[in-house]
Amino acid sequence: MASAYVPGLKVSSALELHIERRLPLEGEIAVQVGEEVSWDTVVARTFLPGAVELVNVAARLGIEPAEVEGALLKRVGEPIKKGEALAQTKGWWGWGKRTLVSPLEGVVESYSAVSGSLIVRGPQRPVELKAYAPGKVERLLDREGVVIASRAAYVQGIFGIGGETAGELLLFTPDPRGEMAVTSLGPQHRDKILVGGALVSCEFLRRAAQLGVKGIVCGGISDTELAAFLGYDLGVAITGSEKLGLSLVITEGFGAMPMAYRTFQLLKRYAGRWVSLSGATQIRAGVIRPEVIIPLGDGEFKRSRESQAPLSGLQVGSAARLIRQPHFGALAQVVELPLEPQPIPTGAKVRVAVVELEGGGRLTLPRANLELIEA
Amino acid sequence: MDLERIHSIVATDCGSTTTKAILIERGEDGFRLRVRGEAPTTVEAPAEDVTQGVRNALAEVGELAGRPLLDGEGQLIKPDDGQKGIDLYLSTSSAGGGLQMMVAGVVAKMSAESAQRAALGAGAVVMEVLAANDKRPSHQKIELIRQLRPDMVLLSGGVDGGVQKQVVELAQLFAAADPRPRLGHNYRLPLIFAGNKEVRPQIEEILASKVDLEIVDNLRPTLEEENLQPARLKIQNQFLEHVMAHAPGYPRLMEMVDAPIMPTPAAVGAIMERIAQERGINIMGVDIGGATTDVFSVFQGRFNRSVSANYGMSYSISNVLADAGPAAVKRWLALDVDEALMRNTIKNKMIRPTSIPYLPEDLEVEQALCREALRLSFAQHELLAGELQGVQRQSEIGAIFNQQRRRSLIDPLALDMLIGSGGVLSHAPKRWQTALMLLDSYQPWGITQLAVDSIFMMPQLGVLAQILPQAATQVFERDCLIELGTCVAPFFVPGRPGKWGQPLCRLRWAGREVELKVGEMMVIPLECGRQLEVELEPIRTADVGRGAGVKCKTLLRGGVVGVIVDGRGRNPFLWPAEGPQRLGSMRTWQRVMAGEVERG
Lengths: 375, 600
Prior knowledge:
The complex is a heterodimer. Chain A has helices spanning 57-61, 65-71, 202-211, 223-230, 261-269, 298-306; strands at 11-22, 28-29, 36-37, 42-48, 52-56, 79-80, 85-88, 99-101, 106-111, 117-121, 125-130, 135-141, 145-156, 159-161, 164-171, 192-195, 215-221, 238-239, 247-254, 274-278, 281-282, 291-295, 319-322, 331-336, 342-343, 349-350, 352-357, 362-366, 370-372. Chain A is mainly beta. Among the domains of chain A are: 52-121, CATH 2.40.50; 158-289, 3-Layer(bba) Sandwich (Glucose Oxidase, domain 1); 319-372. In chain B, a hairpin with a 4-residue loop joins strand 11 (283-288) and strand 12 (293-299). In chain B, helix 2 (111-121) packs across helix 6 (229-246). At the A-B interface, strand 5, strand 10, helix 4 and strand 26 of A face strand 3, helix 3, helix 4, helix 9 and helix 11 of B.
């Protein structure tokens, strides 16, 4: 296939984002097209159905399912409080009556004479959907959500954990090769989003969460450290719902991986800005990658946009990152794209690219192991 | 359509990431594969139209074959006029995650398991199995039904005339959850009821207003009988009418094809069943993908399929490590690899799933993980492909099920052919690596043929088998299947495992005689299509399928690897001592399989 390389993560100094915000269920939209929103503006709200409990009345009262109807004290559609009597046996001349109380507050929803069970549904739970990133409401999604147009500098990570958050961006290590040292953490980092270099440890993440740090952006993390922080070995890369006190965005991969210079420089330029961040990752069909969104003003956006190189496919001269050993993480420039598949050290014959490493030296590598550095 | 006049066929398989197309043509010696092409699948944004990817793949096939298949407007040219176009177009699909189902039954090991088998046999990925007796509280089950958003539900439970209460309760759970389908908001979730026929009125009353209810014959009419076909057919029918009809671009694809689109795994199952039936053999097949591993088996004419939804070589590779454990992966390596480094390598593959091993040690780690993914998937398959469970007896407190320990239908000794498929097996740099991965993971007993699907075209041949079975068989045998060779694996009689280095089996062929020791492997080169008569004489406490210590002469088929004699033992498989001995043995076995040394 002609596109045998990996398109690459987006790292852009100016990008027009169209952020889709969707409710889990249909609801009402709280904003209008053209309205300016902040990251914490509520754009839509709905009610999630309440908790449901199936109550096996027959079994709990020790009667036949056919007898349940006569024992019910509440009819379908009637409200009921938690602990309120739901059904009662007749007893023997008023003696030995057995009463069943409702396990939750709600409404009696349905009942079956065959199973002798009824369903009590709890009250609905309100859900509010925030804008997440500042911008302008571009489109309404028919009772389901909105699309927000946002002009921003943008960093896409390769892997992350934790959900959406926002905070002030702060450079934690002076260069992209540095390790995030736990000894440098302090109360001044509360509510901040910290940018580190090559490696973050479990100890650092735990301490940062304790201090109230909102997010961390770093080049790499070791798998054993991640497992220690999560409390389990991550099997499938579907994340975002973890409740660990902070969100994490890894930009390069697993192991000690210096953050790509361009990514680091971009984040450094906007240190002190309020940014939106999400650690949610899903590496399957419909890929979701973690991200950092740095909102830009109109003038700033225009200037950055003009200085940006246009997007292109893999070609001689393309800048790429090596995404497999050897030289994992190294930056290189494509110098030749041979047409015919060629043998590689494993013995496989694959389509290759000849690259010149940033630090010098030529390598012939599978195109599949190159990730284009996108503007 | 006059099938006799069909000269050219195009079949596509729309996978999650790639749409693969093959062109088959009729020549003087029957049907043969002409060319294969592929293009990225276009179900997701920005295209959101599966036919774009199909047209791109067809255009590539047309270019490679040197004749156009599409006209200027991108429409298929039909019929074939000798210069352009084709006569028949067929397709399978697993794009967008395939057919995702939830199944439910009263007893986990009985009706729920039968429902699972019915769904898997119809080509579905089973997202969740609910059972009245699975001990989860009802609110948790309702939450699950709501969250998972399957494409379809299969509800079963109760033999005809049997339990009613629990079946109705399950229906109440589904009604309370008010489930919504995954694709599209304008249609109701299809729910098929295949349980106790006596509760049909209650099921209709509870569910008819909430879901698109279909009722078919009970899939477990009695405890001793399983009747999966009506449910399977209804699932496939609903798949086309509801799920496919709401997937991006599929209504157009349905207009393009000359026969109904089949779910990919159902098509693979169909071709496997057909081959097993035609040759009168027991078959196992495995297709290991990036996210999932499918295992198919046909033993004594009974077809079974299982999907290990989270064992695969890219998206799910970390899950293989998590479930198998690092030690189980490392035991297959001929190199001493640092565990922390290995874990990082595996995670990096998970987050960059399209990258490929460049260094031999990287390849070895991936192939070790493949062995474990296959081993775990085979074990899951064995659990599912069993004889029916459940003997019912009445007691004063109602129906109590006495669950008997059952026998699996999968008999490693009765297996005649093991077929591997999927990138890591089909595209291994050396065919001997594929053979060794299959051997190590499944560990067949006695005499077993090993084969690999050359370019993974079984789905297309499966759908073709529904229309032109002869053409499907011809292409399968000539162009699809690559025979790796035959494996001879002596096994120990129960309770008498051999000792490392002691004699295991004597082999005589073409005037030669060799004594194979426990822990040794050996390869006799023998080309594809050739056969060799070999006399096998196992020691008194070992067997090659004819009885302990029984000498036998047998004809063995060759292959690209040859005849492989595996003396590492079965029942149990004997591991060398951990440390330098294990590393040395691993290296030696690799050299034997590579043909560098005859045995060792």
